[in-house]
């Protein structure tokens, strides 16, 4: 039975008059009578007692009326939910992002998106580039914000740029190089060095090492840190220095300072990445909110 037929039945049941019901439905009375007869034939029960004086519901009609109203209301809710998902105003969205994306303007973009989209459940998870790409391909997340460069093979995915950051040198406040306004790349030669795990961002790691070696710098890696928080802690403790994205400076820590670097290092290009042909209106809304907050 179609929902339109249910609406015909409900309208006649409320008016108890075929003429008034037809006018309310903006159709002629004979087609309405035919539709009600078709409903009765389909159900196998008479729903209305008809006479020249009045129209009344049969016991079967009285039993159907509340169920018909509930079904129609549920169908209207389903249609609204589907429309809102298609329009990007409700639904679930999971975003995996590298730690460097966690800037104040990222936070503002997320806050504004949540304020403007109360019907959306947004799941956020910090990930490495490798983890995020794997999660995308296995459909564990919908959208990723990762380090991207031309050496990476993502032909099975689509992407859009978000922002570009430079590297800074993180070092203890009492380190001799902290006295300089900027640190020449050559000054990093043989310094105790804290590095991130290559498997987390392999292409970026290889690019950094290539540029260091090209500048005659052989880093003395004394510690591998899996988390950015660990890197900052170790630098503040005097274990070594580290190359970090410039967004790291927004998270201040006692005993730790940052300096620009004089020399050539790879830029950190952060991109939105999603599965091919998988960009939804909801994802577009989130991307737009985040891009609006990026300083230009």
TrEMBL record:
Source organism phylogeny: Bacteria, Pseudomonadati, Pseudomonadota, Gammaproteobacteria, Oceanospirillales
Q: Which domain of life is it from?
A: Bacteria
Instruction: Give yes or no: UniProt keyword Cytoplasm.
Output: no
Query: Could you tell me what this protein is called?
Result: Transcriptional regulator, LysR family
Q: Which InterPro entries match?
A: LysR_HTH_N (IPR000847), LysR_subst-bd (IPR005119), WH-like_DNA-bd_sf (IPR036388), WH_DNA-bd_sf (IPR036390)
GO molecular function terms here? DNA binding; DNA-binding transcription factor activity
**Which family is annotated?**
Belongs to the LysR transcriptional regulatory family.
Q: Name one GO cellular component term.
A: protein-DNA complex
Give all residue intervals belonging to the HTH lysR-type domain.
1-58
List, alphabetically, the PROSITE patterns matched: HTH_LYSR
Q: Which UniProt keywords apply?
A: DNA-binding, Transcription, Transcription regulation
Q: Which residues form a coiled coil?
A: none
Its signal peptide is none
Its source organism is Marinomonas sp. (strain MWYL1)
